[in-house]
Amino acid sequence: MEQLIQAYVVTFYTDKSQSRMLRFFVAAPSPIIACTRKEALTQVYLRAVSEYHRMQSAKLAALRHGESFLFEDELAAAASERKRAKAAALAHSKEHGC
Ligand SMILES: [Zn+2]
After folding, report:
1. From ligand 1's centre to the CA of 88, what distance in Å?
2. pTM for this structure?
3. C-alpha span between 3 and 26 (Å, rounded)
């Protein structure tokens, strides 16, 4: 079976006068078929990270206003969801090889 392999030519000069050079053929990356499940899991993780940081900001704002222990439960829940979402994304990648 014939296979077409695309490659790039990379040239390095080994001196400042550019009289000596090395050339390499570097295989082009193979076309990657996107995994929609990985994309979805990554989006869930991104939202979880964003929510965690939003809760941290709310807690900091409360502390600055002298309301010391607000948002503890919300922050813990956001941390738990972030951890769960990360584990789900990593487990999928490991299982699926994507
Ligand atoms: Zn996948």
Report:
1. 11
2. 0.64
3. 16
